[in-house]
Amino acid sequence: MHVRFTEKEYEILTKKFQRTTSNQLSHYVRNALLERPIVIKFRNESMDAAMEELILLRQELNAIGNNFNQAVKKLHTLKQIPEFRQWIGINEVIQENLTSKTNHIQQKISQLSDKWLQE
Fold first, then answer.
1. Model-level pTM?
2. Cα 116 from Cα 109, distance rounded (Å)
3. CA 61, CA 105: separation in Å to the nearest integer?
4. pLDDT averaged per 10 residues in sequence order, the chain, 119 residues
5. Quick one: which of 23, 32, 36 has its CA closest to 3?
């Protein structure tokens, strides 16, 4: 069987098809014509903001990890005590930054989990 559609009808049909889980347009059309169930893709838009925040948090964690790794590598290269004392002073700033960012991340994760539990 062959069916012809106008350009506008075909455009409407393909837009509806794209919102489904069907892999083939012909499969979607058969299901629609025979009134079989059609599974529509569902997107939880409330998770968009959460995912964006989690991506930013992951980037922050990566940056913190890189800074910490650099500090540890520096520790392994120190041979003289004055260099070690200087490294300790620098490390205190890194540690404060790490603690601040970790607290920030914990707060954001708590907020996101509270929001997720409400839904």
1. 0.44
2. 10
3. 9
4. 91 92 91 89 71 80 81 73 75 82 82 69
5. 32
